[in-house]
């Protein structure tokens, strides 16, 4: 038996959905579906017979009708021959003979009568013969010539303008058909197939995203056509917990499933054995596209691994991520805190790179997170094991990054994105519209991975590469109507999967207790920042970086707390404010100072400090900012301080520049903003 073609395999796959059950109704629908393609010739035979009987009733004795019918028969046959010039010679001849025979019988039946002489016999014998000839042609159309390697009638491909393309042996999987396609040399290219994907989907009555084409990198006319008849993503799947609790961050992160049911996986660290590079990730999607659930799928997978720490910035005050916040090594709520985190990441990169290089690692691997007890990874010149603490992988995540980019500039992440991968750091940036007026082209080019959710059709090019869009990816078709639907492009994922839609799992209120347990597990069992990373962070952030909070102790019983409160009340001592404790009630009041008199309208109010005292108060203000963890400052941060001490913002601006010259401050990328250098680091 000749080998089955792609059309047959796809037809069988699609028709399996139409067969229904084993009931009589299901069998009847199946038989009717199978008979539909063969009915038109028989319907034409029946209509011709009825037309002959009606014509004889109308024109039996009309000579003019005989002339008109004869001319119409000749004209119709000629028109059929002319219209068939673009088809094969066999189809053209077959069509013309059929029309000529039918129109000749109709003319004779109208003039002489359908039952006169042999006219009825010709109808009963010749009509079925012509109808069967077309049925046989339709059957043979799906039987390829083994020698030619292609079918006599291309069917589906002929409809979409690819009749001369050759289809190889198809691979049929559950809900997925993959067939190699070879186009006509010198006449067609892979671009012709990508332009025809919408028409192929229309011919199969499928959504556009169900038909993809992956061009071969070695040929301009070869590739693979992938068709997924059933959308398995329509069913919502809720998140129930991480996929690999206690595993390594180097193992795949499972964030959902593809439309054929396969797991949706991605990797962050590189793998020198597999030839996979470390990556940064962009999460992009419009409002209502499910970007929050996609981020939660990824973050829960990351926090469930034993050798990774997470620095997370969220200007929305952790509205979606509050249950997971205790498991984070550093959490910032935007604004100045995020400025400090960005500066700390920039400082941490060279420190981690030096450590990895000193211990013989060209890139971060899971062994780097362990205590360095082997001679192959030692920083000692004599080659003996150094015993240095391991360095966990670091994920720096900036949620709603458009807010940060507006505050710090569109190139805030450029240096991090270009340098962090070699330091065992993965940058994750999440925002709705990664257009070039928000994010610099250099930063976007340094984010090789993307989770692209539904968006405006005009924004597709900002999220996905052109070749993935050409292969059939179309996130603009979803918008916010299908939350969680996404395309994932990342190292480690086969390229033919880039244009395959997936869907992340949904987080509901039932997921909150599980997320809280996961955060507790991360507190107790997850990695902690190594001395190199923590030291570099504190050299920039000071007390703003404290590391992951310890697991909260068990609450004390209410009775014990009441006893302690009573005890405190009994031994509270004198009822005076602490700031008044050292005042001698017998001492004289100090003399008047300039500015202590009652102010006059239009004059400066209150006491103005001397220049030396003002500088001392300014130094104390910097120390206070440092104790509070506010390590990025500018004149606007001193507004209340200026009002309290009757000093101007211009005076503060000069003092900030002087402090930078003295090494107490360091300029940032944002004009008018300065980073406080911690006192110990400055010393």
What's the topology here?
Elements (H helix, E strand, L loop, with lengths): L5 H10 L8 H12 L3 H21 L3 H21 L5 H24 L6 H23 L14 H4 L6 E2 L3 E3 L2 E7 L7 H15 L6 E5 L6 E6 L25 E6 L4 E4 L14 E4 L6 H13 L4 E6 L16 E3 L3 H23 L34 E6 L2 H8 L5 H6 L5 E7 L9 H5 L3 E5 L6 H4 L2 H5 L14 E5 L12 E3 L7 H14 L5 H11 L16 H13 L40 H17 L4 E2 L5 H7 L3 H13 L3 E3 L6 E3 L2 H4 L1
Parallel strand pairs: 8-12, 8-13, 9-10, 9-11, 11-12
Antiparallel strand pairs: 1-3, 2-3, 3-5, 4-5, 6-7, 6-15, 13-14, 14-15, 16-18, 17-18
Helix pairs in contact: 3-5, 3-6, 4-5, 5-6, 10-17
Protein name: Plasmid transfer protein TraB
Keywords: ATP-binding, Membrane, Nucleotide-binding, Transmembrane, Transmembrane helix
Detailed description of the structure:
The protein is of the alpha/beta class and 683 residues long. Among the domains are: 33-141, no CATH class; 156-227, Gyrase A, domain 2; 253-433 and 506-544, P-loop containing nucleotide triphosphate hydrolases (Rossmann fold), CATH 3.40.50; 608-682, Arc Repressor Mutant, subunit A, CATH 1.10.10. Helix content is 40%, strand content 12%. The chain has helices spanning 6-15, 24-35, 39-59, 63-83, 89-112, 119-141, 156-159, 190-204, 291-303, 336-358, 401-408, 414-419, 441-445, 460-463, 466-470, 512-525, 531-541, 558-570, 611-627, 639-645, 649-661, 679-682; strands spanning 166-167, 171-173, 176-182, 211-215, 222-227, 253-258, 263-266, 281-284, 308-313, 330-332, 393-398, 425-431, 449-453, 485-489, 502-504, 632-633, 665-667, 674-676. A 10-stranded mixed sheet has the order 7-6-15-14-13-8-12-11-9-10. It is elongated and about 130 Å long. The termini are far apart. Keywords: ATP-binding, Membrane, Nucleotide-binding, Transmembrane, Transmembrane helix.
């Amino acid at each position: 038996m000749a080998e089955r073609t792609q059309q047959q395999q796809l037809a069988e796959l699609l028709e399996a959905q139409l067969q229904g059950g084993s009931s009589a109704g299901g069998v009847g629908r199946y038989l009717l579906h199978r008979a539909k393609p063969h009915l038109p010739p028989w319907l034409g035979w029946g209509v011709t017979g009825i037309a002959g009987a009606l014509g004889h009733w109308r024109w039996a004795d009309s000579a003019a009708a005989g002339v008109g019918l004869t001319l119409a028969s000749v004209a119709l046959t000629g028109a059929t021959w002319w219209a068939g010039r673009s088809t094969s010679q066999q189809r053209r001849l077959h069509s013309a003979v059929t029309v000529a025979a039918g129109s000749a019988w109709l003319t004779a039946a109208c003039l002489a009568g359908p039952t006169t002489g042999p006219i009825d016999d010709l109808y009963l014998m010749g009509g079925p013969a012509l109808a069967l000839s077309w049925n046989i042609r339709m059957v043979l159309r799906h039987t390829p010539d083994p020698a030619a390697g292609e079918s006599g009638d291309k069917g589906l491909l002929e409809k979409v303008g690819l009749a001369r393309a050759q289809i190889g042996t198809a691979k049929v999987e559950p809900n997925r058909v993959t067939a190699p396609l070879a186009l006509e040399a010198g006449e067609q290219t892979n671009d012709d197939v990508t332009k025809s994907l919408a028409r192929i989907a229309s011919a199969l009555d499928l959504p556009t995203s169900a038909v993809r084409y992956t061009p071969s990198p070695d040929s301009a006319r070869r590739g693979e056509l992938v068709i997924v008849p059933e959308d398995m993503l329509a069913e919502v799947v809720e998140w129930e917990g991480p996929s690999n609790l206690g595993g390594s961050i180097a193992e795949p992160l499972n964030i959902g499933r593809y439309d054929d049911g396969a797991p949706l996986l991605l990797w962050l660290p590189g793998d020198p054995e597999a030839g996979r590079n470390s990556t940064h990730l962009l999460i992009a999607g419009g409002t209502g596209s499910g970007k929050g659930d996609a981020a939660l799928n990824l973050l829960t997978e990351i926090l469930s691994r034993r050798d990774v720490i997470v620095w997370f910035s969220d200007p929305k005050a952790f509205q979606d991520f509050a249950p997971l916040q205790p498991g984070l090594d550093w959490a910032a709520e935007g604004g100045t805190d995020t400025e400090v985190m960005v500066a700390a990441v920039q400082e941490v990169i060279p420190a981690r790179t030096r450590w990895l290089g000193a211990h013989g690692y060209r890139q971060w691997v899971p062994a780097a997170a362990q205590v360095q007890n082997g001679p192959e990874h030692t920083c000692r010149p004599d080659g003996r094991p150094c015993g240095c603490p391991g360095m966990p992988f670091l994920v720096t995540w900036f949620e709603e990054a458009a807010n940060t980019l507006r505050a710090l500039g569109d190139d805030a992440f450029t240096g991090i994105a270009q340098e962090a991968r070699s330091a065992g750091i993965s940058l994750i940036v999440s925002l709705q519209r990664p257009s070039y007026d928000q994010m610099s082209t250099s930063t976007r080019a340094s984010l090789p991975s993307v989770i692209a959710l539904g968006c405006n059709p005009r924004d597709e090019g900002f999220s996905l590469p052109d070749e993935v869009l050409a292969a059939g990816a179309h996130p603009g078709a979803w918008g916010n109507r299908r939350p969680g639907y996404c395309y994932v492009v990342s190292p480690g994922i086969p390229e033919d999967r880039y244009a395959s839609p997936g869907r992340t799992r949904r987080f509901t209120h039932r997921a909150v207790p599980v997320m809280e347990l996961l955060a507790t597990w991360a507190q107790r069992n997850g990695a902690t920042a190594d001395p190199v990373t923590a030291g570099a962070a504190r050299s920039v952030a000071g007390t703003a970086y404290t590391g992951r909070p310890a697991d909260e102790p068990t609450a004390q019983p209410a009775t014990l707390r009441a006893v302690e409160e009573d005890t405190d009340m009994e031994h509270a001592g004198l009822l005076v404010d602490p700031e008044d404790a050292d005042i001698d009630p017998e001492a004289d009041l100090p003399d008047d100072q300039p500015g202590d008199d009652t102010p006059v309208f239009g004059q400066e109010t209150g006491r103005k400090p001397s220049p030396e005292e003002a500088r001392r108060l300014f130094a104390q203000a910097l120390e206070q900012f440092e104790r509070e963890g506010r390590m990025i400052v500018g004149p606007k941060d001193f507004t209340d301080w200026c009002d309290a001490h009757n000093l101007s913002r211009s005076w503060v601006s000069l003092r900030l520049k002087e402090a930078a010259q003295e090494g107490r401050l360091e300029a940032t990328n944002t004009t008018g903003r300065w980073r406080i250098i911690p006192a110990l680091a400055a010393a």
